[in-house]
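Researcher: Next sequence.
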Amino acid sequence: MLVRFAEHPLFLNVNFKYKGLGKTLNRVPKFINFYIMDKVRAKFVCSNVQDQPDFQSQNVALTAVIDGSEENKSFSKYTPAGNLNITISDNTQAFGFFAEGVEYYLDFSVAAIPVD
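Model: Next structure:
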């Protein structure tokens, strides 16, 4: 969505609804895109899974895909680097979900927007 704005040294004065949250934003920092996206998708590959029996968990490391399929090459064009490390408790359904060498999509969406 393209928004009209009035010039200000630090902020754009805009008035539009943010799709995902139903909030109206009136002053947006200048560095924000004029097109508000609902989510961003990245593609990562699991590089390491390490069980931590003493802590009843496992540590999982993922890195951004950089080569392989044409889809991976497309993802690496826009997200050429990235790392994610998570710890998963063993009493959850997520425990054992990740496997080394398997590729995963990561979908990011805004959880909250700070309000002045």
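Model: Residues 1-38 form one domain. The chain has two domains: 1-38, 39-108.
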